[in-house]
User: What shape does this take?
Amino acid sequence: MLGVPRDQRTESAECLIREGDVVIVYERHDRMKQATVCKGKEFQNRFGVFPYCDWIGKPFGSRVVGKKGIGFVYLLKPTPELWTLVLSHRTQILYVADISFVVGFLEIGPGKVVLESGTGSGSLTTSLARSIAPLGHVYSFDFHELRAEAAREDFKRNGLGSLVTVAVRDIQGQGFPEDLVGRADAVFLDLPQPWLVIPHLGRYLEGNVPLCSFSPCIEQVQRTCEALTSNHFTDIRTFEVLLRSYDVRTQTFGSLSMTGVKEEIAAENLSQVRKLSGQKRGRDGLKQTEPLVMQGHVLTTEEVTNGKECIPALSSSSDIGLSKNPENTGVERNSSERIVARPYPETRGHTGFLTFARQGSNLN
Ligand SMILES: C[S@@+](CC[C@H](N)C(=O)[O-])C[C@H]1O[C@@H](n2cnc3c(N)ncnc32)[C@H](O)[C@@H]1O
Assistant: This one.
């Protein structure tokens, strides 16, 4: 079952890949695909051809080599976070930063009952299902029949079928079903016009049940907040969650011959970091658009603009610019490998706004 805690007795057996399992085929952290193991068939990518029968019986996490013995991939066990990266996009989806925030702020945990609409591609639903397992339930609604059916299939393939009910319903037109009144612990909306549903949510939110509505545009947020206010909701808060990912890698630098001269090493390191980060010194000095980070230390503007200023920070082997050479005695000798971290230039920006609220009468 995808990402759901397992019974310890079955854990070791579940760690082995079996016929019919969904596997995340990992090429790089930003390049993964899903595959369903099927004897007699093969997985193909640009690294080669991989017969599924070679995967059966191997532990998840294994590295497997293609038929020609050159290319390789890793076979990972699906989790909701990985699934979000490989699912078929039938709609816009929520990503891990928003999902984490939603799960945390809606206080969703084991045993909870969550109402959701629309289901879309099931990206959020998959995380909700993992969070409420093993005894809770997600009731998810979408008015698009084919999408609902495809999502149902995905939940089943991922072993979440018993935790999620997907139903076809126009939630903006009809609201949630009557039989769910008083049963929800949290309500989540990802709909184009959430303000149409809000006036009918009262009975589902009694008992201080939290509501969250996701909208990509600020105009939608304004209308949502107006509807929340005029329907006496309180504790209304809107957030935009932005994620900044860093690329951490070992980088080869030109060798340094000035053994023992820390100032030279520091200056050299900083000029290399500037080059790596694509930062240029303009007429007004360094144009710093992104923080420079080396081995866990975020460089200050002062350190970046004046290499000598950061020399004290270079005095231990865990600091920036020192090599990973175990024989390193404090100042490196002709070593050239360092761990460098920098933000990805294509960092994902705005996805949407999350508006949270609760019914007014339940708050002091
Ligand atoms: C952006 S998608 C939801 C994506 C989902 N949160 C995810 O993470 O995969 C919005 C969904 O709302 C559905 N939808 C739009 N209007 C609806 C309505 N009136 N009632 C129910 N579903 C609706 C659409 O069919 C679409 O699948």
Remarks:
- Residues 277-296, 303-333 have pLDDT under 50 and may be disordered.
